[in-house]
Design goal:
single chain, 280 residues, alpha/beta, Rossmann fold, 5-stranded mixed sheet, 5 strands
């Protein structure tokens, strides 16, 4: 299929620009024309100022894409289908062609090309088609914090990690990035997730029998509120040069570790095959 593709668009979540970088794409798409789009930018920075001059310069320095087939790839729930729908609306003024949702896994198979630019019979130029794909999760998650980040932004189903654990991690980042004022209507500044969630329960009426706070329901609600940009807008990754270098080095170490593991698995399989052959 890649042989028929002229350009790759890789989507990464603006809130986790490093963690949503999938090393599988670095390997499989190496050498191909690729544009990286950071999605959900409005959720990663409050009142982000747009550099109009730079945007204009970037817009002028482009190649014609007429007659192209474009493949869009990225992690689960990173916003690929939303980007496709936006490009379709901007290019041909038509509604949704791809389903979207708050949970990962909405797109389950590679779609046929969706037209985002109409062909022009007068000039003879061809149309532009965009191909949507299911989200591809990283082959391995290097550490617990990376998994928490991916779960918090919605690249992992909410059933994988306990909601209270996610809320605890979110509370840490809220205190670090924006301070306790962002959740001040629920409780005072705190590092205690139980105190925070109990305050949310009282304020929102998430109480069980006998008025017992439903901490899990409150945690789910809090995470959803943050995903919508209502509990602070900030980036979870450390987006500095050192942070990127550490991320790449980490991927190299993990790749070597995975290669060694695969080699051992192959050796074990060969040993089992030889043993079964000798017994036969």
């Amino acid at each position: 299929m890649l042989s028929s593709i002229d350009l790759i668009i890789e989507c990464r979540d603006y809130r986790v620009p490093l963690t949503s970088r999938n090393p599988l794409f670095e390997q499989s798409l190496a050498g191909r024309e690729r544009v990286i789009v950071y999605t959900k930018r409005d959720l990663g920075s409050h009142g982000l100022a747009v550099d109009k001059k730079r945007e204009t310069q970037h817009g002028l320095a482009h190649d014609s894409l007429t007659g192209s087939r474009i493949l869009i790839v990225g992690m689960p729930n990173v916003g690929k289908s939303s980007l496709l729908n936006a490009l379709r609306m901007a290019g041909v003024n038509r509604g949704k062609a791809a389903f979207t949702g708050a949970q990962p896994g909405i797109t389950r198979k590679i779609a046929s090309g969706v037209k985002i630019v109409d062909p022009d019979p007068e000039t003879g130029t061809e149309g532009v088609y965009l191909v949507d794909t299911p989200g591809v999760f990283v082959p391995f998650v290097p550490d617990t914090e990376s998994m928490l980040k991916l779960a918090l932004v919605g690249s992992v189903k909410d059933t994988i990690i306990a909601p209270t654990t996610l809320a605890d991690y979110l509370l840490f980042h809220m205190n670090l990035k924006v301070g306790g004022r962002v959740y001040g209507e629920y409780c005072g500044a705190t590092n205690d997730v139980v105190e925070f969630l109990e305050g949310v329960c009282r304020k929102t009426g998430r109480l069980g029998k006998g008025g017992v706070p439903d901490l899990e329901a409150a945690a789910l609600w809090v995470v959803q509120r943050w995903r919508q940009g209502n509990l602070g807008r900030f980036v979870l990754d450390e987006v500095e040069v050192d942070g990127l270098e550490r991320k790449v080095a980490e991927e190299v170490r993990m790749s070597v570790s995975q290669a060694r593991k695969q080699a051992k698995d192959v050796q074990r399989m060969r040993a089992k095959t030889k043993k079964s052959d000798s017994m036969g």
